[in-house]
């Protein structure tokens, strides 16, 4: 871990990810609450959740672009564009022109601009750290992701209550500006570079410092489609593809949960309750990310199956108790196994996928795992509007139980050994 923290390129990438995720968390919590505030409708928050998360389903389209475009350019360009776009909402409010339709237009555009970021960061990480440092590096990356979520969801809820949701969009612009500066100073070796000196000390004067290909690439549309197909084919028939089936069920339910959470929290205490509940969810994922490195020595299949079975029981308890402090605690504990699984799966993919394929494989993986989230948000909002938000939360607990049963039922998943002993992604 010390060597990792002394790696200047890693630290700039890590800090950039931390700031970016903080900004993402702030605009998401602000937008969902703002839509609920403007409409008072769980169905509208479901639409907002759908529009915000739907771009994740096409993240795979950015994979080939990430693999053929200098990574620093991708990271800087996306942050700069988001920092400008996010100002539309406070400007509209200042001009007395803010409506739910403005929010519903801006949010998917922000999300779309964010889609190349995670594949680019995932593609950059193996180029700047050693293979044996990948699990620790991903644990820290997951820490940045979930830590920012936990902290800024809590702060965001309080800021919404004290200052108003529009204020958070002004803060967002600042966070994206900081991320732009951090990524602009980042040096990323070219794909295929594999030596300590380059990973530790690559400079901006080198051709590879931008994370581009060391030789000219064929950028024709036919080549793009071939690259995209290669990423999809690589995952076909792998254990990761099988894991995605179970993840789709859970993501459908989580999409519904996040869509109805403003309505659920409004009954329990308003914006401050919303901040506490979203912070609890982020904290659970954060704890899971932190212990992900420690549990890598245990059989992967058992960790996932037993963990998700425990999640189901804890989640049901959180909904049943219906008391904010206890519910928040149980929600947090229920999400710990999800944080563990995220770290282990990402580390597995990065260790076994060639550098030149990693951007498109990561993008396909991200799109496939997230594709059901917007559908869940839309359905969850509609169900909550017709019945209650609580029913959607009960369904999420059932999805965790289904995932546990699925892993137990599929031999190639149930028998997965500890992560260091997995030598191929091919399902057996």
UniProtKB/TrEMBL annotation:
Of the GO CC terms on this record, one is: plasma membrane
Query: Can you name this protein?
Result: Major facilitator superfamily (MFS) profile domain-containing protein
Could you tell me which Pfam families the record lists for this protein? Answer: MFS_1
Task: List UniProt keywords, sorted A-Z.
Answer: Cell membrane, Membrane, Transmembrane, Transmembrane helix
Name the predominant localization: membrane
Q: Which organism is it from?
A: Natrialba asiatica (strain ATCC 700177 / DSM 12278 / JCM 9576 / FERM P-10747 / NBRC 102637 / 172P1)
* Keyword Nucleus part of the UniProt annotation: no
Which InterPro entries does the record cross-reference, listed alphabetically? MFS, MFS_dom, MFS_trans_sf
Molecular function as annotated in GO: transmembrane transporter activity
Q: Kindly give the SUPFAM superfamilies that the UniProt entry links to this protein.
A: MFS general substrate transporter
Please name the Gene3D superfamilies in this protein's record. MFS general substrate transporter like domains
Query: Region (Disordered) spans which residues?
Result: 195-218
Localization (cell): Cell membrane
Q: Could you list the residue ranges that cross the membrane?
A: 12-36, 42-62, 83-104, 150-171, 243-265, 271-291, 303-323, 329-349, 361-385, 391-410
Major facilitator superfamily (MFS) profile domain boundaries: 239-428
Q: Which CDD domains match?
A: MFS_MefA_like
User: What membrane topology is annotated for this entry?
Assistant: Multi-pass membrane protein
The keyword Transmembrane helix appears for this protein: yes
């Amino acid at each position: 871990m010390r060597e990792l923290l002394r790696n200047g390129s890693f630290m700039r990438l890590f800090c950039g990810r931390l700031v970016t995720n903080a900004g993402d968390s702030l605009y998401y919590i602000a937008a969902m609450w703002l839509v609920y505030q403007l409409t008072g409708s769980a169905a509208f928050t479901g639409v907002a959740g759908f529009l915000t998360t739907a771009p994740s389903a096409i993240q795979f389209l950015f994979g080939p672009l990430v693999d053929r475009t200098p990574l620093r350019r991708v990271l800087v360009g996306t942050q700069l564009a988001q920092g400008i776009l996010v100002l539309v909402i406070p400007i509209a409010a200042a001009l007395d022109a803010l409506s739910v339709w403005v929010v519903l237009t801006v949010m998917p555009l922000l999300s779309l601009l964010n889609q190349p970021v995670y594949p680019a960061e995932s593609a950059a990480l193996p180029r700047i750290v050693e293979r044996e440092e990948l699990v620790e590096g991903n644990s820290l990356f997951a820490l940045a992701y979930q830590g920012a979520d936990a902290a800024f969801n809590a702060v965001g809820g309080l800021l919404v209550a004290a200052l108003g949701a529009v204020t958070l969009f002004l803060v967002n612009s600042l966070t994206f500006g900081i991320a732009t500066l951090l990524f602009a100073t980042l040096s990323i070796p070219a794909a295929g570079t594999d030596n300590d000196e380059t990973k530790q000390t690559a400079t901006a004067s080198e051709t590879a410092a931008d994370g581009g290909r060391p030789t000219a690439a064929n950028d024709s549309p036919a080549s793009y489609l071939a690259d995209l197909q290669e990423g999809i084919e690589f995952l076909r028939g792998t254990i990761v593809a099988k894991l995605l089936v179970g993840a789709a069920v859970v993501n459908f339910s989580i999409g519904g949960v996040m869509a109805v959470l403003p309505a659920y929290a409004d009954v329990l205490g308003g914006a401050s309750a919303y901040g506490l509940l979203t912070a609890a969810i982020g904290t659970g994922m954060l704890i899971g990310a932190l212990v992900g490195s420690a549990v890598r020595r245990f059989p992967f299949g058992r960790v996932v199956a037993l963990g998700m079975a425990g999640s189901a029981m804890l989640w049901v308890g959180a909904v049943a108790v219906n008391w904010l402090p206890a519910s928040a605690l149980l929600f947090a504990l229920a999400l710990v196994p999800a944080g563990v699984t995220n770290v282990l799966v990402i580390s597995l993919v990065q260790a076994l996928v060639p550098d030149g394929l990693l951007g498109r494989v990561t993008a396909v993986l991200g799109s496939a795992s997230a594709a059901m989230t917007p559908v869940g948000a839309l359905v969850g909002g509609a169900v909550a509007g017709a019945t209650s938000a609580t029913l959607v939360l009960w369904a999420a607990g059932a999805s965790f139980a289904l995932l546990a049963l699925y892993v137990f039922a599929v031999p190639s998943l149930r028998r997965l050994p500890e992560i260091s002993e997995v030598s191929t992604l091919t399902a057996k």
